[in-house]
Design brief:
The chain is about 40% helix and about 30% strand. It has about 120 residues and is of the alpha+beta class. α1 packs across α3. The longest helix is centred in the first third of the chain and has 16 residues, at about 1-15.
Amino acid sequence: MPYLRDRPARLAVELVRHGARFVIVGGTAHRLLTGQGTPRDLDVVVDTPDLPRFVAALAMVGVHSSVAVLSRAAPSHVDTSWGPLDVFVGTRPSCRDVLFKESRLVVVLPASAAA
């Protein structure tokens, strides 16, 4: 089961490897910060100026989308070979870096940890 638990994080690693910039939110952020839970998908927030890079990274992992499509809906749902991806376009929330299998990922800092 560990492989299935890590699939959303592995997708995030691949996107970062291909130049995408985003913040992980939702269940995968919780899993990366606590080591607990089994996220079903990857939820990310992408700043509008970073959308072209994000779309290019998606293409590198075999997912076809566009800036126009991702800008239109909130969130935009994308199916990938790693599982579902939900993309929110907007200002990045407060966050911090975490290390996942030697790849640096940026995840949301929960409100309870910020205090």
